[in-house]
UniProtKB/TrEMBL annotation:
Transmembrane regions: 47-80
Pfam families assigned to the protein according to its UniProt record, in alphabetical order: DUF4956
Annotated protein name in UniProt: Membrane protein
Keyword annotations from UniProtKB, A to Z: Membrane, Transmembrane, Transmembrane helix
Species, as recorded: Streptococcus milleri
């Protein structure tokens, strides 16, 4: 989310700096494409850092030293502020629940009443067969509401799945996506 907040400002500054200079515009485009596509794939924060460094470098290279200094300070404060308040971050109560059930259970509704009591949000993310189709491995993304502890949730799920494997872990989104 920080990238979505800051990238439009960076692009506007680059456009402002290369206004009317076709050579500078082509140089910026070439430099960015070399840096971005010749390096290892990174996440949105890395892309933002590269673009910020290029924008500051362009401003300094074109002789706008005071502007580059003020811009650097302002953007650093904004980045620090967004990072401090966890802007756009998921709530810490998001969990990934993985449950193994026998094929005889209807996985679509078997845990609905338990999740209704224990969560504010539940999403069936993945269903996979294992042990030659005799078991289902189901992944849910849930947001706990605090009425049950994780242990109470595991105990409730265990009674329903016949004491097969259950895992609750912190939900992590893919880091390499914008």
């Amino acid at each position: 989310m920080m990238t979505l907040v800051m990238l439009p400002t960076l692009i506007a500054i680059v456009i402002f700096l290369v206004n009317g200079s076709l050579g500078a515009g082509v140089a910026v485009m070439g430099a960015f494409s070399l840096i971005r596509f010749r390096s290892a794939p990174g996440g949105a924060k890395e892309l933002l850092a590269i673009f910020l460094a290029m924008t500051i470098g362009i401003a300094v290279g074109m002789g706008y030293l005071i502007f580059a200094s003020v811009f650097t300070i302002i953007m650093s404060v904004v980045m620090l502020l967004l990072e401090t308040v966890n802007f756009g971050q998921m709530k810490h109560s998001m969990r990934q629940v993985t449950v193994v059930i026998p094929e005889s259970l209807d996985y679509e509704m078997v845990f609905d009443d338990i999740f209704q009591k224990a969560t504010n949000y539940v999403e069936l993310a993945n269903v996979k067969t294992s042990d030659m189709g005799s078991l289902f491995k189901i992944k849910y993304i849930v947001q706990l509401n605090g009425t049950m502890t994780e242990k109470e949730l595991v105990d409730a799920l265990r009674t329903r799945n016949g004491n097969l494997e259950i895992a609750i872990s912190r939900y992590v989104t893919k880091e390499n996506e914008l």
